[in-house]
């Protein structure tokens, strides 16, 4: 969650209150709620670093996605699509058209 506010402490309190309300509702319904990172005040420098990290992560994910497609093609070596299989070429399996 993110928020912008002129008063840092008011923003932190609002986020913490929202997190508490969400956690209470989820646990009341039998779920599990974990806060990965508690709210904090970030500076423009922090935001720029986060943007760089997210861009780097996007590039890494794009490379991985391309790798997956390559593996599928490699795994299809020798697949003929069902026609002209080796069984068709064995003696006794000739079609009537060839006679």
UniProtKB/TrEMBL annotation:
Where does this protein have compositionally biased stretches of type Acidic residues? 65-75
Gene Ontology cellular-component terms listed: eukaryotic 48S preinitiation complex; eukaryotic translation initiation factor 2 complex
Species of origin reads: Eufriesea mexicana
Which Gene3D superfamilies does the UniProt entry name for this protein? EIF_2_alpha
Residue ranges of the region described as Disordered: 57-99
> Which PANTHER family does the record associate with it?
EUKARYOTIC TRANSLATION INITIATION FACTOR 2 SUBUNIT 1 (PTHR10602)
Name of the protein:
Eukaryotic translation initiation factor 2 subunit 1
Q: Which GO terms describe its molecular function?
A: ribosome binding; RNA binding; translation initiation factor activity
User: What's in the keyword line of the UniProt record?
Assistant: Initiation factor, Protein biosynthesis
- InterPro entries, sorted: TIF2_asu_C (IPR024055), TIF_2_asu (IPR011488)
């Amino acid at each position: 969650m993110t928020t912008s506010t002129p008063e840092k402490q008011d923003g932190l309190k609002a986020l913490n209150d929202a997190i508490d309300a969400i956690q209470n509702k989820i646990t009341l319904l039998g779920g599990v709620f974990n806060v990965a990172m508690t709210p904090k005040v970030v500076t423009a420098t922090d935001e720029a670093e986060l943007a760089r990290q997210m861009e780097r992560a996007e590039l890494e994910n794009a490379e991985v996605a391309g790798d997956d497609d390559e593996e599928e093609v490699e795994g299809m070596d020798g697949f003929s699509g069902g026609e002209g299989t080796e069984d068709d070429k064995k003696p006794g399996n000739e079609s009537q058209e060839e006679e």
